[in-house]
Write a structure and sequence with these properties.
Length: 348
């Protein structure tokens, strides 16, 4: 019998040379050890709806995105569903704005109309309704504003302050209207204290206990929402949102915000924006067991598009890298304007 000892067997307890590159040698090896995968089921596609027929208004600062009339929205949703995207997130641009954002709780308002059309066109597509007042109010703030002469005026609070509790009542009312139209998930995005509890109570009280709440639990006052405010025609006419959205400098505070929303009955959580807040996303993933979404917002989309249009970044690779980073940090779902493109790129 030959004993194969061509190489001297070392008896010394010598450390092996550490060579992680062994596992990067080939496409096959790299795919075997890949830790994070993107699939169409990860994505939620945001859509903007406005009145009219046959309308596809390009949004200048968000190449490839449109304000759509209801008929066009239905087509867009069918396309997303065919691509395997499970959900859309709906934003309305009403014809009529007023101090209390009444189109948001009008059963024939733009979003209820759109939800009914989506449910006809693509019954299995999950419809998430963004629940906020900034698109609907004449002043562009996310709720009722403290102004002398107005119904809820409180002289103890500064003029122009967003009144918390009167806003809660309207959020509850509007959520029930969107649920009645067929929304599967209500996603309150205004960072109003108590919004999840108020919406849960309004939904349960009106027979919609099967409708979920996805809370924009940790939403920062971010410059990266810039292009969205063109898209949704919702910039505040005075001041900014820093009295309700979070300070970008704060990390521990996000845990407090999320814990409150969990206690109030949120079914799902969200961190927003995504890329500048991956530490927050990782913290939320570690500390809470609820499904968590990350919102890659309009400015994140716009900066990749703009750099790509200049030839400075490769669009497909940088978009997919941004998405894999968000998933790796802990997102179960990613709200992204790249959703349809990403599905096509992943299928190549
Ligand atoms: C409404 C809302 C905003 C976004 C989602 N919901 C704007 C804001 O808070 O000013 C931003 C989304 C994006 O930038 O893509 N409250």
């Amino acid at each position: 019998m030959t004993i194969l000892t061509q190489h001297p067997v070392s008896t010394a307890t010598q450390a092996p040379t550490l060579r992680p590159r062994r596992l990067r040698l080939s496409t096959g090896l790299r795919s075997l050890v890949r830790e994070t995968l993107l699939t169409p089921a990860d994505f939620i596609y945001p859509l903007f709806v406005r009145s009219g027929n046959g309308i596809r208004n390009p949004i200048k600062s968000m190449p490839g995105q449109f304000q759509l009339s209801v008929d066009q929205l239905a087509r867009e949703a069918e396309e997303a569903a065919e691509l395997g995207i499970p959900a859309v997130l709906l934003f309305g641009i009403p014809d009529h704005k007023d101090a209390c954002g009444s189109d948001n709780f009008n059963p024939n308002g733009i979003v209820p109309q759109a939800i009914r059309a989506l449910k006809d066109a693509a019954p299995d597509l999950v419809v998430i309704s963004d629940m906020c007042f900034c698109e609907y109010t004449s002043h562009g703030h996310c709720g009722i504003i403290n102004l002398p002469g107005e119904e809820h005026y409180d002289p103890h609070l500064p003029e122009g302050y967003l009144l918390n509790d009167p806003t809660l009542a309207l959020l509850g009312q509007a959520s029930a209207v969107h649920a009645e139209a067929g929304a599967d998930i209500i996603a309150p995005s205004g960072m109003i204290d108590g919004m999840v509890g108020a919406i849960r109570a309004a939904l349960d009280g009106q027979g919609f206990n099967h409708v979920s709440v996805m809370s924009y639990a940790a939403k920062y006052a971010s410059a990266f929402y810039g292009p969205f405010r063109d898209a949704a025609e919702s910039p505040p006419s005075f001041g900014d949102r820093s009295q309700y959205q979070m300070d970008p400098a704060n990390r521990r505070e996000a845990m407090k915000e999320v814990a409150i929303d969990v206690a109030e009955g949120a079914d799902m959580l969200m961190v927003k924006p995504a890329m500048p807040y991956l530490d927050i996303l990782a913290d939320v993933r570690r500390s809470f067991d609820l499904p968590t979404a990350a919102y890659q917002v309009s400015g994140e989309y716009a900066m990749i598009q703009a750099a790509a249009a200049n030839g400075w970044l490769d669009l497909e690779r940088s978009a997919l890298e941004s998405l894999i980073g968000i998933k790796r940090a802990g997102a179960d779902m990613i709200i992204t304007y790249f959703a349809k493109d990403a599905v096509r790129w992943l299928a190549k």
